[in-house]
Specification:
Blueprint: H1 8-11, H2 15-18, H3 22-29, E1 33-36, E2 39-50, E3 76-81, E4 85-91, E5 99-110, H4 112-119, H5 131-138, E6 154-157, E7 168-171, E8 185-188
Helix pairs in contact: 4-5
The chain binds a DNA duplex through residues 47, 49, 55-57, 60, 63-65, 79-85, 87, 89, 102, 104, 130-133, 142, 173-177, 195.
Length: 204
DNA sequence: CATGGGATTGACT
DNA sequence: GTCAATCCCATGC
């Protein structure tokens, strides 16, 4: 952090950014930068989830698990998947609406050495090409669940240089069985560092 | 209190 | 292509 003297709060995406329709936020987040400590990466892939459709955890209503999803926007929703992986989501829309954007892939940007150490020295292109991989690379765990994305340990800043006008490729969401036909997955066109399978047209 | 499923990954056939 | 690892929590008896 000492190498970056600029004030973080001045450039962090504000609460109002997240307090919008979740499918819009999912698209706008591609190209933005996630920070955790010295580690950071450019978002290459997102998915939107909303409590109006069955794939969203909040579809079942208010429970201990879904209280954060249904709470105010601009907070981190982190949960464990398959007993092993921590998945990072940004809570969106108004307080009372269950909606979040799942961050599925990053282009590694800051603290590559730390990422390599935490990920076990895989090729750099594979450091953050999946939702469980990127949380491990960033050093995130469930401890950041229900923390602020504006002034908490995890922060997201606006689109990096070279990503202001990023072209998006939409596809269906990955790894779900319910509401599997909604095209709510968004990838940065031309970037191979996204999770498999690549959506049609990614490289064209 | 017991059971089962899941927004994944990596290793293996 | 298949499959197991392994945690949280919703559901049901």
């Amino acid at each position: 952090m000492a190498a970056h003297p600029s004030s973080p709060s001045a450039t962090v995406l504000p609460v109002a950014f997240y307090e919008r329709p979740v499918v819009q936020v999912a698209q706008d987040l591609v190209g933005c930068v996630v920070h955790h400590g010295a580690a950071s990466g450019v978002i290459l892939e997102t998915e939107a989830y909303h409590d109006s459709e069955a794939a969203c955890h909040a579809y079942v209503g208010l429970t201990a698990r879904t209280s954060v999803l249904l709470g105010p926007p601009a907070r981190a929703y982190v949960y464990r998947s398959y007993g092993i992986h921590a998945l990072l989501n940004a809570v969106c829309e108004a307080d009372g609406v269950g909606a979040a954007v799942l961050i599925r892939a990053l282009a590694p940007l800051g603290d590559l050495a730390g990422m390599r150490a935490r990920r076990g020295f895989v090729p750099d292109a594979r450091l953050c090409d999946g939702p469980g991989k990127l949380t491990q690379a960033l050093g995130l765990d469930l401890e950041v669940h229900d923390t602020s994305l504006v002034d908490g340990p995890v922060r997201i800043t606006p689109r990096a240089s070279g990503f202001q006008d990023v072209r998006l490729v939409a596809g269906v969401r990955i790894g779900i069985t319910k509401a599997a036909d909604l095209p709510w997955r968004f990838c940065a066109a031309g970037h191979r560092g996204v999770s498999r399978p690549w959506p049609a047209g990614l490289l064209t």
